[in-house]
Amino acid sequence: MRSYKLAKYNIKSILKGIIIYYALFICVITGIELIGGFSIENGSSSGLEFSSAIFLFVLGLNSFRETFYFTQANNIPRMDYFKATAISIFPIALAMSIFDVIINRVHNLISVSPTMYDMAYYNSFSFKGPWTQSNSIQTLFGTITFLFALYIVAFGIGLLITMIYYKCNKIMKIIVSLSPVAVSAIYGQMVYYNHDFGQGVAIFIDNILGISTKNSYMAVITFICLFIILMMFVYLLVRKAVIKKV
Amino acid sequence: MRLDFNDDLPIYVQIAKAIENNVLKGVFEEETAIPSTTEISVKYKINPATVAKGFNLLVDDGIIYKKRGVGMFVVTGSKEKLIKKRKENFYNNYIVSLIEEAKKLDISSKDIIKMIEGGL
Amino acid sequence: MGTIKVSNVCKKYGDTFALDNITLEIQENKIYGLLGRNGAGKTTLLNLINNRIFLDEGSIAIDNKKLSEDISGIRKIYFMAEQSLYPQNMKVKELYNWTKEFYPNFDMEYALELSKKFELNINKKIKELSTGYSSICKIINTMASGAEILMFDEPVLGLDANHREMFYKELMESYINNPKTIILSTHIIEEVAQLIERVVIIKDGKLIASEQVEDLLKGCYCISGLNKNIDDYIKDKNCISVDEMAAFKSAIILGENGEEEKRQQRKLDLEVSKVELQKLFIYLTSDGGIK
Question: Is C66 helix (H, G, I), strand (E, B) or coil?
């Protein structure tokens, strides 16, 4: 019960930000089109909805401290905070994925703008050849589920990162910040010295995202699994989270 | 009703004494209500349990009684009771220290009697 | 109900004990004063009871249900912390609305009535409130919460004398009309000395007193007189403090002021007076003050 109320609080506090985001987004697209002269030949854009993923990532980054403190002020158990956070992201991600598809379809009336889904999973997609966007139930459903799963992962990553930072002291923070650089450096070295390794990784990613098989649902399952793993770590961190003394 | 937190007497005793004084003076008439626990508690910022304790002293002495749902009322004849009690304690409460002080200041009993007659 | 049992609670930070083996009981519907010097461990204790930080040893039970088994007990408590934990951009009236969501017994009418009395502008955002009004906002939120147990950590920080008086009066009235358990943790001891029924004193993480205020004060008295008379008197007594001024000394004695003692005092021409809670607190919690 409390989790639902807290989820309601989460959603309400995020709503303003979402409205501003979409207002800006639509303005920017309209601006680009105006400059381009509303012509289908002049330029194209693609995968614009990725900005929503970035937006949700940033949302995740900002969604810990204030909400957690508010939770503590109302003596709400940490488990409820965790449940509320997990619950509140689903309707937001779903609404945004549907809304993004709608924006995209409207945009496609004016110029060519395939979604990431179209580019990755549409059988006869090609950048050079003629392409008409499909509005079949399969495509729409596939796009929405794909975006939904991507968005919840983006939020989850943001949330986990901000919680790790919250927990860390100065030294740990530096280590955590450098780790992506370290990982890519190590990865680069391994690929350089072991060609098969690079191949293996590429094949693995292809499989879990279902790109060669043109199966978006592989990606959806991958993202959902990733989200669950992220949330597990979030849960472990929330369990022992404490308000910092001023 | 004046209460002095710095006085040596516990607050609940002071409350009882103050109410007694007001009964004697006639401010609280017999069969009328005295200020409630709430009123005293809020006005002087005293824990109601302390106020209740003071009231209990008065109830035990038969000065006030509780009318259920209405409040605390002054018992008929309590003024008389108080006068009698105070008279009995008059010597201990006032005369003893007066004599002590007079001795310190070397005031003769004749002078004391003159002062008293002048005052009364 | 509104009872709390703290049993053998310890909280460590590194090697230091912030709280060392604290055992106490909070009974229902009584007003408690939680006293202690800066850093003694008062806030730590309150944070532990409200599960904001975690115990190292011992257990805490609310209404006989251990927190380790059933955390929901903390929902019976509204804890007003010194820190501001509310979203800075939230308006006061939004805060009341959200508190009502999480504390169903929240009395909105009462909150609005108090806001008027204290002249708190409920349309202001939390971050726009001054220190004093920030405290007032938290106080009103706590008092209107409808919780069975109210805990105030430094409630009158930044409040002017008029508002402090208003707070104490409103608190008394609310306590009488709707009995509840109240814990006041404050440094301003003289102001709450008459309000509280029981007192809990913490010194350096240890519990040095947990009893009725009256009993605590009955167990000590102050005597004053000539130096050598005082020295004579305190020889065989538990004296916790001595003050000297020219040829006079005054001392605080822990113990009963019985007939034997009164006789000695008359013989040595010593004056007796009672000790105020704040004075007693200072002596008990100074370095060297013993209990």
Answer: strand
Chains C and A touch (3+ CB pairs under 8 A): yes
B50 touches chain C (CB under 8 A): yes
Comparing A202-211, B63-72, C67-76, the range with the smallest average pLDDT is A202-211
Residues 2-61 of C with CB under 8 A from B: 30-31
Annotated domain spans of chain B: 11-78, 79-119
CATH of the domain spanning B11-78, picked from 1.10.10.10, 3.40.50.620, 3.20.20.100, 2.20.25.100: 1.10.10.10
Cα-Cα-Cα-Cα dihedral sign, residues A201, A203, A204, A205: positive
Backbone angles phi, psi at B78, to 5 degrees: -70, -30
* Contact residues on chain C for B6, CB-CB shorter than 8 A: 276
**CA of C161, closest CA in chain A: separation in Å?**
27
B5 contacts chain C (CB < 8 A) = yes
**Residues constituting chain A:** 246
- CA–CA gap between residue C248 and residue C46 (Å, rounded): 43
Q: In this structure, which amino acid lies at residue B54?
A: G
The verdict on a CB contact (< 8 Å) between C176 and B37 is yes
Read off the pLDDT of each residue in C281-289 and give the average, rounded to a whole number: 79
Distance CA C98, CA C140 (A): 14
Q: What is the largest CA-CA distance in chain A?
A: 61
Return the pLDDT at C109.
Answer: 96
Q: Is residue C115 within 8 angstroms of chain A, CB to CB?
A: no
Amino acid, single-letter form, for residue A97: S
Q: What's the rounded Cα separation, in Å, for the pair A2 and A8?
A: 10
Give the C-alpha distances (Å, rounded to integers) separating B109 from B86, B115, B120, C168, C262.
23, 10, 16, 51, 28
CA dihedral C40, C127, C162, C83 (to 10 degrees): -10
Identify whether the C-beta of residue B42 lies closer than 8 Å to the C-beta of residue C172. yes
Cβ-Cβ contacts under 8 Å for B9 (sequence gap 6 or more): B17
Q: How far apart are CA A82 and CA A159, in angstroms?
A: 11
pLDDT at A27 over 50: yes
Residue B62 carries which DSSP code?
T
> From residue C264, how far is each of A129, C54, C251, C269 by CA, in Å?
113, 52, 15, 8
| Structural domains in chain C, sorted by start | 4-214 (3.40.50.300), 219-285 (3.30.70.2020)
**Mean pLDDT calculated for residue range A100-124:** 80
List chain A domain ranges: 2-34+45-239
Please state, as a whole number, how many other Cβ atoms lie within 10 Å of the Cβ of residue A120. 17
Mean pLDDT of C19-23: 93
C177, C194, C276: residue with CB nearest B46: C194
What is the average pLDDT value for chain A, to the nearest integer? 85
